[in-house]
Amino acid sequence: MRETYVKSWLKDALGIFNLELGRLLRDGGVMIIFIVAGFLYPILYNFVYRNGVLEDTPIAVVDNAGCSDSRRMIREMDATREICIAYRCTDMEEARELFRDRKVNGIIYFPSDFGDRLANKETAVFSIYADMSSFLYYKNLLMGSEFVMLGEINGIKIERYRFDGLTDQQADASVNAVLYDDVNPYNRAFSYSIFLISAILMLIIQQVMFYGMSMSVGTMREENRSFASLPDTLKGRGVGRVVLGRGAVYWLIFMIIGIYVTAIVPAMFGFPQRGNFWEIMVLLAIFVTVCVFFCMTWSTLVTRRESAFILFLFMSPVCIFLTGCSWPTTAFPAFWKWFSYLFPSTFGCQSFIDLNTAGADLEIVAPQLKALCLQGIVYFVLACGAVYVENFVLKRKDRIDEVRREVEGRIERRIGAGKIQI
């Protein structure tokens, strides 16, 4: 009995696997998405951000203060790796003209009261205007000016402590009470590509899978077909076989894409690969499995093929933000922290960065792997529930339509009776 059941289960799952694979291969749109997006998106992102480190960004300076403090800060900014003071302008209009002509990628403006405010021990303000056509311009201008500003603030504090009667040693100890050394071991050059691409690579797997699966589901619904149709041989008891049979197709496709994304692409562009290959494969297998059930669950809500385009464009920046690579998760509001737990990319990207970039092992990323496994269990149950509900509705579609028509008829008769009575 047991052997017969196992053979029947495997036979049914294999049949569903072949059915889903044939359906995907016949859908040219979905296959283009899988091939183009899965294999070319990582290359495209890396080419866009191939200059992960940008040096000597040309900047225009408008120094209306003309004081020793502003001139010193300008010299120090020019000495940084990030900024090159290319032009010194007499007014903002001249600086704007240079900006419009693309001769500079930012403007630094010192107002006329800058020196007077410092002399009067008031808060002095200078302004920066960045070219946002590339985040690298903004990063360089902000980092270069902030490094100089922090140094100036410490110098002003020491000078004022000396004026209050403290010795040089006492003043320095008051400003630098805790000595520290800023060390960034995993991205020493502050490369934007290393910072961003490591998270995007894993996110591509989730988003492309969801995009393709949603297009497939939307197409079937537009053609009055369903992803939840159970073969007659299953007699309504094969929901798990449908989910696993369909999911195995996407799992195999995206394991191939995943190996390409996590192992080959970083090697092509010289990204850090400090992790153990087989440990990264363990993470990849778990992550792809969870993504399959995640996409299978949420794609059931898609009713039209083009809906996937809107979801893809809207959710991609949200998901990359929720990974915590651009903003620490400890600073997330409670709502966004809980919301981030809906997406496998939240834990998958964090684990991949720790393993591949920081050289951690599976023991270090165990909390993220446990969270992924919990997500997989939840989404598997939800995927099975979605298939069961849709199959239930399909089998009783005629009865449901009949009940709906009866209800609509009663409402129309009551409305008609009400009009006659009036």
Written account of the structure:
With 422 residues, this protein is mostly helical. The protein contains 15 helices and four strands. The protein has a four-stranded mixed β-sheet, sandwiched between helices. Helix 1 (2-26) packs across helix 9 and helix 9 (239-268) crosses helix 10.
In short:
By secondary structure, the protein is mainly alpha-helical. 68% of the residues lie in helices and 5% in strands.
Strand count: 4
* Cα gyration radius (Å): 30 Å
How many angstroms separate the termini? 70 Å
Helix/strand order? HHEHEHEHEHHHHHHHHHH
* pLDDT < 50 runs, ≥5 residues: none
Strand order of the largest sheet: 2-1-3-4
List the total number of helices. 15
Based on secondary structure, the structural category is mainly alpha
Q: Give the overall average pLDDT.
A: 80
Basic shape: elongated
- Tell me roughly what share of residues is in helical segments: 55-70%
Strand content: 5-15%
Major sheet: 4 strands, mixed
